[in-house]
Design goal:
It contains 12 helices and 20 strands. By secondary structure, it is an alpha/beta fold. The strands form 5 sheets. It has a 10-stranded mixed beta sheet with strand order 9-7-5-2-10-1-11-15-19-20, sandwiched between helices. Strands 14, 16, 17 and 18 form a 4-stranded mixed beta sheet that branches. The chain has a two-stranded antiparallel ribbon with strand order 3-4. It is globular. Keywords: Cytoplasm, GTP-binding, Ligase, Magnesium, Metal-binding, Nucleotide-binding, Purine biosynthesis.
Length: about 425
């Protein structure tokens, strides 16, 4: 079997973890290929247990899948070990985890700089989580990064850290009046992490190549989503990596020709966390309804998510950009009870109708959504498992999304549980 990529089609928090978990029992590997612990997946198992995962691939909850943190991820070892311990305490087998030696480490100076820079930006802040992800990727690109494999060589770890802190401590102390990072204390801390993480560190590219050669199924799981992609999202209000399907090859080290299916996940409405343009954002009772009924608070940060109607312009853009073969629509049940369910089918910019993503940041910022209103439904849909069990108006809503995105909707989520789905087309052959 070839590789499958699972991505978010909006600004994140679409329910990718649930889909990964849904597929986990039928795949051999689940690979996290981008982002850091600024992302979160919430998974609810059939027995009602809730898991909030940040660095661990969602496949950790599937007993048969091997789980990999790829080279494209930035790893905070303290956070990862806390997550490993938490899962082990709840009976989850974490011995299947392998971490790419080429993944980069988040260091104390990354977290310190992330927090202080964001604070000094004031009203121009990006809305980062303050967990050091951006600075870690910045050092990676600047060829000053410290990698997971450096934990295996104390001499290299110290040398690289000393080099990095020559500059970073000057910035922290002289520019931002913050305490400098101590080299000795940091080396000692990270060598303690190394003792526990060493058994997990591996050459993961070769593992995946061999798995694909054996005909095994590899699921590549992105963090964040399309509109937060460094190159293709709403820059500069984006993450620091490439969570789109193309980033899966770079972040996991597998060839593009190995991928034959791209599954995109989108809510039945739209949310985003942090700053940046959001054409369909709601500031009225409807927005409050979506937030309350949809429990729209960040898995990682707890921040309230901004809520708005479904944006077909964004969804169509994501489908085309990622080469999406299957669309999963989650949280359809949240729309139950609304008399009308609008869909944004285009924008009006400077008096002109636009049906595709605007080229410039300015135009997207000033885009006014053009809505098409569909009739809502009042029936409880959480027990529906087939399309025929959905109310007629709910079926029409899904059909219209499918038409606007020019991509088949294969699964519709009707509740938070693993089994609360309507299957329209199989995700795996």
């Amino acid at each position: 079997m070839p590789a499958i990529v699972l991505i978010g089609a909006q600004w994140g928090d679409e329910g990718k973890g649930k889909v990964t978990d849904l597929l986990g029992e039928r795949v051999d590997y689940v690979v996290r290929y981008s982002g850091g612990n600024n992302a979160g997946h919430t998974v609810i198992t059939p027995d009602g247990q809730k898991y909030a995962l940040h660095l661990m691939p969602s496949g950790a909850l599937s007993p048969n899948a091997k789980i990999i943190i790829g080279n494209g991820v930035v790893v905070d070892p303290k956070v990862l070990l806390t997550e490993i311990d938490g899962l082990a305490e709840r009976g989850v087998d974490v011995s299947r985890l392998r971490i790419s030696g080429d993944a980069h480490l988040i260091m104390p100076h990354h977290r310190a700089l992330d927090r202080v820079v964001e604070r000094y930006l004031g009203s121009a802040r990006i809305g980062t989580t303050g967990r050091g992800i951006g600075p870690a990727y910045g050092d990676k690109v600047a060829r000053m990064g410290i990698r997971v494999q450096d934990l295996l060589d104390p001499g290299i770890l110290r040398k690289k850290l000393e080099l990095a802190l020559r500059e970073k401590n000057q910035i922290l102390f002289k520019v931002y009046n913050r305490k400098a990072i101590d080299v000795d204390a940091t080396v000692e801390e990270y060598l303690q992490y190394a003792e526990r993480l060493t058994p997990y560190i591996a050459e993961t590219r070769g593992m995946l190549w061999d798995a694909l050669d054996r005909g095994e199924t590899v699921l590549l799981e992105g963090a964040q989503a399309t509109m937060l992609d460094m190159d293709h999202g709403t820059y500069p209000f984006v993450t620091s990596s490439n969570p789109t399907a193309g980033g899966a090859c770079v972040g996991a080290g597998i060839p593009p020709t190995a991928i034959n299916r791209v599954i995109a996940v989108s809510k039945a409405y739209t949310t985003r966390v942090g700053s940046g343009p959001f054409p369909t954002e709601l500031f009225d009772d409807n927005g409050q309804h979506l937030r309350k009924i949809g429990h729209e608070y960040g898995t990682t940060t707890g921040r309230e998510r901004r809520c708005g109607w479904f944006d077909a312009v964004v969804a169509r853009y994501a489908c085309r950009l990622n080469g999406v073969t299957d669309l999963v629509i989650t949280k359809l049940d949240v729309l139950t009870g609304l008399p009308k369910v609008p869909i944004c089918v285009g924008y009006e910019i400077n008096g002109k109708r636009v049906d595709d993503m605007p080229m410039t940041q300015t135009d997207f910022h000033h885009a006014v959504p053009v809505y098409e209103e569909l009739d809502g439904w009042w029936e409880d849909i959480t027990k529906a498992r087939t399309e025929d069990e959905l109310p007629e108006n709910a079926r029409r809503y899904i059909a219209r999304i499918e038409e606007l995105c020019n991509t088949r909707v294969s699964v519709v989520g009707v509740g938070p549980g693993r089994e609360e789905n309507v299957l329209r087309h199989p995700l795996l052959p």
